From TrEMBL, chain A:
Keywords: Cell membrane, Membrane, Transmembrane, Transmembrane helix. The chain crosses the membrane at residues 6-23, 35-54, 74-97, 109-126, 132-150, 162-184, 204-227, 239-258, 278-297, 304-326, 332-353, 373-391, 411-429, 481-505. Residues 447-471 are annotated as: Disordered. Belongs to the CPA3 antiporters (TC 2.A.63) subunit D family. This is Multisubunit potassium/proton antiporter, PhaD subunit. InterPro entries: CPA3_Na-H_Antiporter_D (IPR050586), NADH_UbQ_OxRdtase (IPR003918), ND/Mrp_TM (IPR001750).
Automatic annotation (TrEMBL), chain B:
Belongs to the CPA3 antiporters (TC 2.A.63) subunit C family. NCBIfam families: PRK09094.1 (NF006573). This is Multisubunit potassium/proton antiporter, PhaC subunit. The lineage of its organism: Bacteria, Pseudomonadati, Pseudomonadota, Alphaproteobacteria, Rhodobacterales. The chain crosses the membrane at residues 6-21, 28-51, 71-97. Coiled coil: none annotated. Its main location: membrane. It comes from Roseovarius litoreus. It is a multi-pass membrane protein. It is found in: Cell membrane. Keywords: Cell membrane, Membrane, Transmembrane, Transmembrane helix. One of its GO terms (cellular component) is plasma membrane.
Amino acid sequence: MTHWIIAPVILPALLAPIIGFVMRHDIGLARAASFAGTIALLAISVGLTVMAAGGETFVYELGNWPAPFGIVLVLDRLAAVMLLLTALLAIVVLLHATATGWDARGRHFHALFQFQLMGVMGAFLTGDAFNLFVFFEVLLIASYGLMIHSGGRVRMKAGLQYVVMNLAGSTLFLFALGTVYAATGTLNIADLAEKVRALPVEDAALVRVAAVLLMMVFAIKAALFPVQFWLPATYSNAPAPVAALFAIMTKVGAYAIIRVHTIVFGPDVAVTDGLTATWLMPAAVITLAVGAVGVLGARRLMPLLSFAVVGSMGTMMIAVAAFTPYAMTSALYYLVHSTFSAAALFLLADLVVSRRQGGDLLRAEPPTVQNGLFAALFFAGAIGMAGMPPLSGFLGKLMILDAMKPTPEMVTAWVAILVGSLVTIVGFARAGSILFWKATAMAPDASEEADAAAEPNAEADAARRPAGEDAAKRPAGAMEVAPTVLALAMLVVLAAGAGPVAQYLEAASGQLFDPAGYVSAVLGGQGEAGQ
Amino acid sequence: MELVVASSVGVLTAGGVYLILRLRAFPVILGLALLSYAVNVFLFATGRLAINAPPVLQLYGEASYTDPLPQALVLTAIVISFGMTAVLVMVALGAYLEADDDRIDLEPDEEAQAETTAKKETGA
């Protein structure tokens, strides 16, 4: 039974090379295999979530080597939730990429997609810090391929920046892991939790350096200030379905911070006493501010959405930085919500941008074929992202505000979140009215002018809009709109089922703040093995 | 010994960081390569420096030995950084061929053009 724990890693790992080597000339076959694999992944994730719901922490020892000598995969409630979230998002993104033909505009989309899933799933499951690094590399190397999928001058340049940024980040990760190992002599997360707690406070210097280095590395992935700058350039130049999939990548960084900085360097640890929260809180607040201002100032739709993602990471990390169980519950709820709302907006943006003359430039031009439909979807997505009722963003932000009330940072957090939300709403309202509302006032013959004005950007836009002129006039079919609607439906489900979801997440964060359970589950067999 | 290892890590890192901050793709790639060398040496040292000692402890007791785990970590790190550098070179080459120059930054004129067009359209 416990063998199912490794299935989310094994399945895409086997499927990806088969798609890459055997099915590379047959897009239909590759699509079918990719769908079958992702649906199976979803089924496995649901099974694992149900399995973990009982509260037991399941441990899978690779090669049957007992921890801390071997690598372990650990399944608890948090890991299960993240698996389920990834699988659901993958289905939505895959549907969109297939329906809009994005997957056929370059090579090996489905193989890279599966490798990406493998890396993400592995990062959520692993119980070993060095293994976490390896899975980070797996998901990054796949994301490099996806980022430059279908090519184009601007996209290649942005892709190069993205690769360089992440390679530097990986090097920093290795430095951090080396420091951790030098200070404690282990890299198993559960073992680290024990060793760090047993360390005398006089020898804290090296461990404190390691804790902050690790946080820095995860902050790069989670796009926290001051290392958030790669995100807008990357997301806004990536193919839209890939940007939607990348919504989970920032969450991988957030997950790693949550995992490592509660279990290992938690608030109860003497040597790193409050160190994480001290740095995380201001970083999160500034991230939120940067995101909100970016949304307000963006001149293109894709960067606007990217900044909205940055802002949502800031909101979430404010709750994480409080390091209380209730705040963690609200952060996890908001994490699930922001993943789907970002995905929905990116997918919708793809539908709109590919039908506009000026690409994603925010300026008035004649309405696209289905202006009303797109406007309605954008409205729903923006409500979700900005955190207005009735969608789940409102509940998420409400929970965060409520959770921050008893903490000393209450004023900062409330002001940041409320003002940030307001600015985000204004930014989205501006974008929505330019894109959809002003369009209805324009006569169709104005399109000639708009065309001429768009000329200087033709090359840049071509990269974002490879579908060509014919596609611009074509209304989006039901299959193309379905993934966006599906992602928005997730927000509705999340809002309607807020009670049960919050209960599950509360139990998950309860597990996080009880490292003893995690440690004893992982190192439980150590006694026998040592004898 | 300690001095040699520490200063080589330091010099490699400093050189790597300097090169990463350059504007062209080629020095940046070299910089990342230097950084990965630095981190490999650093990882080696995390198991403490022991000379002429076997990597695996044969007999329990006072025998001197080298920690074998960092060596395994370094091996993994070398393989990964090698693969990543290859990918990086391919992406850089692709970007160079697409854009006809190897500048690493996104051109500001493009952004500016977008901005002026946007102003013209929306400001009116």
